[in-house]
Amino acid sequence: MSSPSSPTRGRPARLDQARTIETALDLLNESGLDALTMRRLADAVGARAGALYRYFATKQDLLTAMAERMVEGVGAAAGPTGDGDWSEGVARLARALRSALLAHRDGARVFAGTHSTGPNTLGFADSLVGVLREAGFGDSEAARALYAVANFTVGHTLEEQAALRPENEESADAGGLHEAVVAGAYPHLSATLPVLTSTDFTEHFEFGLRLLLDGLRAVRQ
């Protein structure tokens, strides 16, 4: 008798889309994006590789579904917007997006290559635009601010996860930068090396986020 998790002999496994996406995320966390293949995913769910194409016509479709699942609930992070502090609502959304991507190995790489139109991704976008429109920003300003905040957050997290990827030698990278700067004629970089080689990515992120918010305040004036 076959186990409950194994497909019946001679028959393809009965696929469930939500479970397949969760399994794909588990594989992502286990081995990273480069090791995630449709065949490996099919093996993990006990199905034939061709059966996956019932839900995902291409691997890109799978990655889009994974990205959509990763940002579930992020749109609710804005919280109440009636207190007039629009900048805190935007900051909460940006932080929530970063946290959601950091929760998965190579999460930013997956998200950056997709353009989901699912309710989780659109919910995040609608919340951020809504915070700004309710604060008096024009429609075009709010829309462009969405791109600025999302692109900064995803780009920052992409670099953050690349630096901390298991196969990278983080200390060696920092050491290489230190040696190159000190060996050359870069006095300004030498003076700022402690920050340039810092791995306090949260502080780096918060500094950039403050710059964005200050810029938005200037637009609103």
Automatic annotation (TrEMBL):
Domain HTH tetR-type: 14-74
Protein name per its UniProtKB record: TetR/AcrR family transcriptional regulator
Lineage: Bacteria, Bacillati, Actinomycetota, Actinomycetes, Kitasatosporales
The entry's DNA-binding region: 37-56
PANTHER family named among the record's database cross-references: HTH-TYPE TRANSCRIPTIONAL REGULATOR RUTR, TRANSCRIPTIONAL REGULATORY PROTEIN
Keyword DNA-binding attributed: yes
Cited InterPro entries: Homeodomain-like_sf, HTH-type_TetR-like_transc_reg, HTH_TetR, Repressor_TetR_C, Tet_transcr_reg_TetR, Tet_transcr_reg_TetR-rel_C_sf
Keywords, comma-separated and alphabetical: DNA-binding, Repressor, Transcription, Transcription regulation
PROSITE patterns reported in the protein's UniProt record: HTH_TETR_2
